[in-house]
Amino acid sequence: MIKGLGIDIIEIGRIESLLKTRGEAARKRLFTPHELACCGRAVHRLAGRFAAKEAFFKALGTGLRRYNWQEIEVHNDPLGAPHFQFSPRVQAYLAEKGVTKTHLTIAHSKEYAVAQVILEGDEEE
Predict the structure, then answer these.
(1) What is the pLDDT of residue 124?
(2) What pTM, to 2 d.p., does this model score?
(3) What per-residue confidence (pLDDT) applies to 87?
(4) Active-site residues: which are they?
(5) 23 pLDDT exceeds 90?
(6) Long-range contact list for 83-87, CB < 8 A, 24+ apart?
């Protein structure tokens, strides 16, 4: 059963501009050390991770009020498929809400990055 659905689209240029004007402070606030290490300076990849986190917050229905950017981390499996790793606090909240699985997809074009998140659970609350 679907517990939550979120989608986000971001102009890659907007993330590029933010990272240029706010520098390392923005990088460290929005992305984890793992994300920065795997993406390097590839702005389209960072924009995809930003969109993924925004889509997750939308699917969760809490916005940024409850959690911060560092508590949600995007990884890739050996074939490149993205998935989340969560802080213990986020994991506990997902379990409380009956979420047993998260689905994530990220896509890029020349100008945009988009991500969709589906939160899945066994039964309705």
Answers:
(1) 63
(2) 0.92
(3) 96
(4) 58, 108
(5) no
(6) 84/52, 84/56
Condensed to tens digits (0 to 9), the pLDDT of residues 37-66 reads: 998 879 999 999 999 999 999 999 877 677
| Contact call for residues 28 and 91 (beta carbons, < 8 A) | no
* Helices and strands of the chain, counted as H and E runs: 4, 5
Q: Structural domain tally of the chain?
A: 1
Q: Which residue has the tokens 């039964």?
A: 123
The contacts of residue 59 (CB under 8 Å, 6+ apart) are 4, 5, 6, 117, 118, 119
CATH number at residue 109: 3.90.470.20
pLDDT of residue 123: 74
What is the span of the domain harbouring residue 108? 2-121
Q: Give, in order, the Cα–Cα distances in Å from 70 to each of 1, 3, 50.
A: 28, 23, 11
Number of Cβ within a 10 Å radius of residue 13: 12
